[in-house]
Amino acid sequence: MTAAGWDQHANLRYGSSQARWVLASTVLGSGVAFLDGTVVNVALPAIADDLGTSTTGLQWTVNAYLVTLSALMLLGGSLGDRFGRRRIYVVGLIWFTTASVLCGLAPTSFALIAARAAQGVGGALLVPGSLSLIAATFHPDDRATAIGAWSGLAGVASAIGPFLGGWLIDSVSWRLIFFINVPLAATAVFIALRHIPETRSTAEGQLDFGGAASITLALGAASYAVIEHTGTASLVAGLVAMVAFVVFFAIERSSVHPMVPFSLFRSTQFSGTNLMTLAVYAGLSGALFLVVLRLQVSLGYSALAAGAALTPFAALLLVLSPRAGQLSQRFGARPLLSLGPIVAGAGLFLLSGAQPGDQYSSAVLPGVLVLGTGMALTVAPLTAAVFASVPDDSTGVASGVNNAVSRVAGLFAVAVLPAITGVSTNPSLAAGLDDGYRSALQFAALATAFGGVIAFLTVRDTAEVPPTSSPVFELSCHDAALLSELGTGRTKQQKRP
User: Fold this and answer.
1) 0.70 exceeded by the pTM?
2) pLDDT of 436-463, one tens digit each?
3) Helix 181-195 vs helix 85-105: crossing angle, to nearest 10
4) What is the 3-state secondary structure (H, E, C) of 10-36?
5) SS3 breakdown of the chain: % helix, strand, coil, rounded to 5?
């Protein structure tokens, strides 16, 4: 991507009328995707009651979206560079919204799962496009401020998502959490077409469709094999996954323009930070999937109460993440990355003790507060450590790879954690959760805490990246990457071990 590719229309000044329109569209667009991602977990018990969905079906409701989103996000960013960022962003919005309507109309679990997979495709086009539009249209001097505003406002959407979703589920129906996307996305499309100029990269390169197809097949087949985990079909799916993974690695190693440049993994720190990401986000995603079910199914929370129960977690991320970023600049990323996952793991361990009849203030809130504090200590330093591990011209792809790793971690955690800890696929959700909730949360706590050990052993350098605002974990691997890539200032410092 050449500088000209970004600077052709990069003249908007923050605070101008057109700049406000660009921010409005991109915040609405990305907010739709992040809002949907946070409310679906809250809706799972209602979906199970309405459609007669088992625990296995609920796992697929989450993972169908993650399979396509994880596999195609890097390709989605490349498509925007090649064919026009506004065009691909708008296509992603329309695709995502159409799939959302299909989710809301789904008459069966299978129809819902298929529509969720389609949503992931739209999200893979939409999420990278929203941020790249800001980077490509704002003046270089204002990009940091604009991306910070985008990050903070999108973070608010993620924070209020469970609360809003719970209210809609209790007041009307779980289907409304998908239909609400329609007016928001329609507004974002209208603003984009009317107020955002088209931009594209002047750099040429082949699009890695083969890599995208093979990794999508690999992730989908592997997820099926683990979730079903018995029978001939599961065995066949496992074999297909292994073959598809081999094909993906072969394509990426031989491609001139690979979707995932494996040369980046020669860096011990890059490999270590991604391994840490895998551990931390596997523990976090798997645990949150089960915690929300536990609150509603076993502890008798309404959807609104379950969503509100997790609000302190998001609030701590919004408030403390910028401070953690400043600390990582001063003391290096290694101390915080070593401590943060251990604190987050302690929070998950506390949540493992939530039992029917327990009070929120004593059984749930302490774990939520400790978990939020640990993740707030982790998010910004992780970003800085990833960027310090690669050359300056590779920060964009390094960001994308790390973000994809976090999504894949969530995908496999939701699939694997219930199976290995005894959470039953019994059609009765309450019975299934009672079988293995405590051991599942404790296993997730250990996985998350192990991320801190990995960071202690592998992290040495910290990239000095201007803080953006209040990052949340869904956005942590996007914002600072573009700031550094687009010339707002980035250096590496060797920090004391």
Assistant:
1) yes
2) 889 999 999 999 999 999 999 999 877 6
3) 170
4) CCECCCCHHHHHHHHHHHHHHHHHHHH
5) 80, 0, 20
